[in-house]
What we know:
Elements: E1 4-5, E2 8-10, E3 13-15, E4 22-25, E5 32-36, H1 43-59, H2 63-78, H3 81-88, H4 95-114, E6 125-132, E7 140-147, E8 152-155, H5 163-175, E9 179-182, H6 188-201, E10 209-211, E11 228-232, H7 235-242, H8 245-250, E12 254-257, E13 262-266, H9 275-289, E14 299-305, H10 309-321, H11 341-354, E15 359-362, E16 384-387, E17 406-412, H12 415-423, E18 428-434, H13 438-448, E19 452-458, E20 477-478, E21 489-490, H14 493-497, E22 500-507, H15 509-516, E23 526-527, E24 544-547, E25 551-552, H16 555-565, H17 570-573, H18 590-601, E26 609-620, E27 629-642, E28 652-662, E29 668-679
Parallel strand pairs: 1-5, 8-9, 8-11, 9-10, 11-12, 13-14, 13-18, 14-17, 16-17, 18-19, 23-24
Antiparallel strand pairs: 2-3, 4-5, 6-7, 7-22, 15-16, 20-21, 24-27, 25-27, 26-29, 27-28, 28-29
Amino acid sequence: MSIQVLQNYAEGKWVNAAASGETLYNAINGDPIYTASSEGLDFGSMMEYARKVGSPALRKLSFQQRGLMLKALAMYLNDRKDYFYTISALTGATKADSWVDIEGGIGNLFTYASMRRQFPDASFYVDGEAAKLSKENTFIGHHIMVPKEGVAIHINAFNFPVWGMLEKIAVNLFAGVPAIVKPATATSYLTEVVFKEIIASNILPEGALQLICGSARGILDYVESQDVVTFTGSADTGKKLKAHPRLIEEAVPFNMEADSLNACVLGLDVVPGSATFDIFIKEVVREMTTKAGQKCTAIRRVIVPANVLEEVHIALGKRLASTIIGDPSVEGVRMGPLAGQAQREEVREKVAQLAKAQTIIVGSLDQFEVKGADKNKGAFFAPIVFLNEQPFQNIACHDIEAFGPVTTLMPYNTNDEAIQLVKMGKGSLVCSIITEDNEIAKEFVLGAATMHGRILILNAECAKESTGHGSPMPQLVHGGPGRAGGGEEMGGKRGVLHYLHRTAIQGSPTMITAVTNVYQQGALQKETDIHPFKKHFEDLEIGETLVTAKHTITEADIVNFANVSGDHFYAHVDVTSLDGTIFEGRVAHGYYILSKAAGMFVDAKKGPVLLNYGIDECRFTKPVYPGTTIGVKLTVKEKIGQEKKSAEDIAKGIVKWLVEVYDQTNETVAIITILTMVKMKQQ
């Protein structure tokens, strides 16, 4: 394979570097395959381009449009993934390793695309509930969140060149913020291949993404207060970047995911030979060997009850001995090389440091076999297990991370000791406990939670479907305190909000309604002569209100509803049992009030309303007794458009309605938010 030159993507065009730059190597055979350089790029100009071109283009799109954009991109990349696998093999990744990187990354795009259902059909997000700031409710407060007007700078690690990029850009693009991606140079050739397909798709607006293959030294000199910086890599490098004067001056958010001495604990209840014991051994070995241990979530410390230490040692040794190392393209190979010779030498150095205070009991630095390749030319490294019999005294294993297939086995005697040991890592991305005992699990989780971003409780009940110790999920937070960097990535909706700016707004309910496109209680209502159920989605206006005729509640209503529903709760049917309660007499069912309200506001004839979609909120605020006269106000609260799933699908949207049920004193007795699916005129 001839040496190819990686390109950068800056200011809307592919750019060749002004110098040849760094040589990149095939991890399996050591052959030079690419060169990478960013020489000649103007980082300040790239940042301005993102702010002035990419940001306005993304900001004007609604969350629904951005979500569909991500979905289209995910489908486009998924159709081209086979080629990505061929390039990924050069990094030393097995097919399974590449699956995590490539399809796991694409999966993040799909996940955030689906999150559009949690956001409004608008370019901004209304956060939480309104705050009543005055006695007569003429002055209220609320929060809106708008996309930041800056750019996200993503400085990524070498171990997941695809996932590392896609899991981050999925979030910022959905939020409406452009990004500059800086992959680790060693494996940037795989990132570049995927990035080229992203640009070729023409799915993203211009300026949404830029790419730096090579050094990005100096880029932080140009950050401004609206920008966001994310970093994945070593704690030492992260601390240096975090302390950059420009970040401090401009108060730029800095999200760091760094070193992590993750632990896996075998519960005191688990006995050798059991199914749960086997799950534990399998999980440890998998996390040691997947990606050749080059994972920020890999298990670096194995903590087991002292009385089963020997059994665990033997079981780990047997399973690791069956792990074939070599060229991932060769049949039977289960673990490939490290990403390069530089990584190999770094791991060897860390192993030497660890060996000063503990003993290698499984594996060797030099004595191991490699299938289908020359171990001296490739960056191969055998799995190594250390034994530390005094983990409270010999603490190197709690401070030094060998970023490869290396772990330390250590004993504990009580659950409290296990908690102390995992916390000695000074902050980790993830910790696991394998146990069938609920109380052990609860005590451990509550004791260890402060020093971990995620805790997996694994046993036979969930093992089959578990995504495992090492797999962060886009719906959950990925990050950890202390040594792990203190940052958060992904996290579902939480991750999106990281790229939005929260602003408190104050004003009248009518004005806040106009700003947020969400009806606020107390705002002016627009009574209509045409029943809103006769109107298509496009014709409905926020604040449009139907005021119904009234109905007086009778005892017969209550008795009949009890008989129809089967709800014979004493407060509704037995007036002799009300002593000592808050009720003055027989009280109407809350669900009767809701049902009756629906009967009062529903237009029964066929029209644009397709179906009842559900209830978001429901509160019964005042008892309703026989003789009470109720009326209903039905108000359009919010509208969210939906895309057609196929050409044959009906064009429609979801309408949220505020249902206010009030009595003859004009006091509210029930307040409900219901949802209907409403047909659009344009099909």
